[in-house]
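Objective 1.3, modelling of assemblies. Example input:
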Amino acid sequence: MKPIIRNLISVSRRFKLATTLNILGLSIAFASFVIIMIQLDYDYNFDKFHKDYDKIFRVERRSTSSDWKNVVHSRPFAERFMASSPNIIAGTIIGGLPYDFVFHTEINGGRNFYEGRVIMIAPEFTDVFTVDFVEGSDDALNAPDNVIIPLSLSQKLFGKESAIGKQLFVSQDSISVTVGAVFRDFPSNSILENCIYSPIPPETVENWSNASWGMYIRVNDPANVSTMFENFARNFDLSSVVGGHWADDFFLDFTPLADVHYIKGVDFDYTPKSSKQTLIILLSIAIVIIVIAAINFTNFSTAIAPMRIKNINTQLVLGARRKTLRSVILSEAVIFSFLSFLIAILLVYIFNKTPMARLVDGDLSFKANYPILAGTAFIVLLAGFFVGLYPSRYITSFPPALVLNGNFGLSPKGRKLRNTMMGIQFIASFALIIGASFMYLQNQFMQKSPLGYNKDNLLTVDIKTITVSRDALANQLKSYSGIQDVTFGASLLSTSDMYSQTPLTYKEDVLWTQVFWVYHDFLKVMDIEVTEGRDFRRDDFYSSNELLFILNEAARKQYNWELNTITTYGEIIGFMPDIKYASFRSEVRPMAFAAIPDTMIAGRPHLNTAYIKLKAGTNLRDAVSHINTTLYEFDENYISNIRFFDETLQKLYEKELALNSLIILFSLISIFISIVGVFGLVVFDSECRRKEIGIRKVLGASVTNIVIMFNKAYLKTLIVCFVIAAPLAWYAVTRWLENFVFRTPLHWWVYFLAFVFIGIITVCTVTFQNWRAATSNPVDVIKSE
Amino acid sequence: MIKITDLEKIYRTEEVETLALNKMCLEIHENEFVAIMGPSGCGKSTLLNILGMLDEPSAGSFLFNGVEISKLNERKRSDLRKSNIGFVFQSFNLIDELTVFENVELPLIYNNVKASDRKQLVGNALEQVQMMHRRNHFPSQLSGGQQQRTAVARAVVNSPKLILADEPTGNLDSQNGSEVMEMLIQLNEKGTTIVMVTHSVHDSRYAHRIVHMLDGKTVTENFLKELVYLAPNS
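Predicted structure (tokens):
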């Protein structure tokens, strides 16, 4: 063992750079693998912490004729369905739209204000989902004034004191609710939020018109779920839920809880999403990284073999058994691999301390990931074993006498194997670089491509607690010279895939349109052009009693309605281009801006989001200070929530951007490891062919001749690998881009640049390495055998 | 053709300084066949490397056809070498990945000979060493003798004026060894100057002159045959 380690150390010293890069490559590969596995584990186990998670389903309403699905139902309908089948053990409804509000606690006479989120639930919530109560019990949900809160919120509000019986006061109305129970926080990989849950008010029991409740059921036999709706429909008059002719197009679908995380295109589904395809790509990259690192390691071991063979075979001659020597070399590889794993753990620890850790949803700490670490350690040992298998057989496969005479070289078979492995690395590098480039382009596309309106220098503020008229508020805000304009909308544009659906009806035509309620100058402030007809006017907002609509092109195309068509809901006064009012995941559907006359909403303003346009070069700090001061004047309990619209939009794609960035990051890492491998191979190839270089020089070859000869050979391999990799990458990228309705074009130059990039790196490596061999004195090598 | 005067070659390492050639003087005439003999480490191979312009002397003069070689840069030495000198090594030094034909063709490629001419010249050289039938074989598929015959063909394909042979029969049995020596004699008879380093007394007898070296210089010279100068174009 000792001489072998000594030999390994001496080889490492001789090829310092190649050895260091190999160890580093292997360590980075294992670290990347661990990080990717943590992310995959997070997504794979989404909502699997519930007992019987595989028996829990979300119930969705589907319309086949208009090809949509949504997740909201009316309470009486949901309750009737949940009671309809003995297969349903428990069912619950959940408020479809979380409600953000400001509340305060009163401790020792002082008031502490907080912003919070409330979701209304039925008491059966705890029969369907697994809720671990730390204080109190599920009985708390039976009292209408009670709420249940997560442990983290309890600690934030009341410290170590018991939260039970404590009151939360809703700021404006001085109404209070009582904390009835405290539950242990749901894991972050769950559709259930860690917020305040309150029981559904009893008055909604027979409210058929309010379809805003999500429905979840826990069943006895998941295999029989599909027949439950048919049975229900036989005994229930669906036309009591929807208009007569809609009843024929009313279906229910049942999505297993664990799949909710992946399902897209369902209206009013606000649960966090992930894409299975993206996760599969991530998993593939994890495997590719390990394979590439293993190939590098095998290549490295076989490449240094000529320098070790003599030593090993001397031991054979002196009586060592071949089998023993093989197992020693094999354990050396396993030890090497395990050392790299230890370095990898250190790298994961360092990664966790960097801002890049935010790209990973899962907890990167060691204590949260023992199974993943143990699994990776097992893979590491296995990889070490397989990686060491070939070199151990190869090094000991020569007849000792031949080796001691010094008359051996790398066999053509061995060289072919190493070239094939290098080919795999090139193919992986090309495919990854092309894939990562398109992911980067798609990320840029989602962030940078025009939305059809001007989002620059735009701040948004949630003003739902401000009851003053929007006109007065706008005037007060505009008194600061740095504010160019102020307008209002019902919510944030482009941040949701779904706004309220309204069936605009004219004669026989029913146009399901998403309606976004706005202030009269919204389009002007946002630079949205009215291509035909007119924009809203101030009078529309304050004097008119009619609803007015400006439709997008998608809406116009459906029935070719003309200007001034008066629908059942109001008049169409203009048309505008198809702005991207929803996310990039969904296509532009019929949509309308609507100015709702203030007289129609009794009591309080309905436009709850202020859009504040700053002048270019305005001092941001002063502007924010002015906005805050203004809003405090109107609501003394106002909690500042000014946001840049740009950043809000970016948040919309946070998950996609994070996953894509992870893929780009790990693609770059695996490209780096590949290139390290290629570098190592070139180094050893030129080392092995030093004699050939010497002979060629003796026969008259110049340094340029030799460098060109090597480059030609590598470029040939590169071209073959590119031809294989490009269609593979094209296919993978095309499939992945299917996740998005708005996609970056498949630019040809990405392929070209990928080739040029890998080509330049290869040529530089080959030239640099062979230049050294070609300029050395041939006399030193031609007699080396 | 070759005139070396007070030639020195010193190999220096951090601790030791070795004098491989010690003020050596030697003159070799055109069309001469010279055998260089001596014990291991006496400087034979060093001398051959310098004569082949593969190595530079540390001091002294080396005239090749009247040109002072020690003053030439690497490129000029390389140009002079590839058009004037052929090499035959003890270990053949064929390139494993190339066929017999491709191995023999290499010096012509580096001399920028046209492809059509190359085919002809390689064919002639292989005919000369009776290896035409093996032209598509790889070195690993040949016997030692066949490999050395290929190496000889490669050395002569460019019609060099000088062939430097470093123990050309060292790795061959006596029959193959004799065949290679016969080839060298034939080349010499056709006008090629040959300088051969050898340990074999038998092989040295083929030469016109034997130069005995010890400790980096000539100790004795034996003239075995009279040198017959060939008329131009003979």
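Chain B touches chain A at residues 45, 49, 52, 54-55, 75, 78, 81-83, 87, 89, 91, 93-97, 106-107, 110-111, 154 (CB under 8 Å).
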